[in-house]
Amino acid sequence: MKIVKCLAISCAVILLAAIAFYKMKTPVLLPSGFYKLESKSEKNGDDTSSCQGSILVKQITKSKLAITFSINKGADSNNSRSFIDTLDYKDDIAVYKKSDSDRSCRITMRFSSKGIHVIEQTSGTSFGCGFGHGVVADGFFKKVPSKVPVLKDLDVFNGL
């Protein structure tokens, strides 16, 4: 009788522990917001240039994000590229693959609580992903405290 009672208590404890573990959740990452590229300035003779970029993100559903992406190489060419798209979102990752001019283009965006780590993969060396000459969508875009953004076309020449 003592063995049955001990077994019943052990099962109850294990069941309660399993329920408590199941109810524990990791914090949910909220990707909606404004992100700004953290870039280094480059000195070329008397000119100083700095790559600029920003991303506006609005979560539409648990698995879909609306994104406005813009990046500018800076002086002296000011080559740039931007796109607006709806991307699948899973495990804090969104991937852009819809470049008309470069089918090898893949831009992976890994979201964290601090920002987005962006990695561009392409076979194009000069105009990869259809971006301007020498423009590469790589870097860390820091999350800027803001409300959920109203998505709009980003103008890389005005205030980024």
Task: Characterize the structure shown.
The protein is mostly beta strands. It has one domain (33-144). It is 14% helix and 42% strand. The chain contains 1 helix and 10 strands. The protein has one helix at 2-23; strands at 33-38, 41-44, 47-50, 52-61, 64-72, 80-90, 93-96, 106-111, 115-121, 139-144. The strands form 2 sheets. Strands 1-4-5-6-7-8-9-10 form an 8-stranded antiparallel beta barrel. A two-stranded antiparallel ribbon has the order 2-3. The relative contact order is 0.20. Mean pLDDT is 78; it is low at 156-160.
Short précis:
This protein has one domain (33-144). Helix content is 14%, strand content 42%.
Q: Separation of termini?
A: 75 Å
Poorly predicted spans: 156-160
Secondary-structure element order, N to C: HEEEEEEEEEE
How many beta strands in the DSSP annotation? 10
The general outline is elongated
Helicity, as a percent range? 10-25%
- Strand proportion: 35-45%
Structural class: mainly beta
Number of domains: 1
Major sheet strand order: 1-4-5-6-7-8-9-10
Number of helices: 1
Largest sheet: 8 strands, antiparallel, barrel
What Rg do the Cα atoms give? Answer: 23 Å
Q: What is the typical, i.e. mean, pLDDT?
A: 78
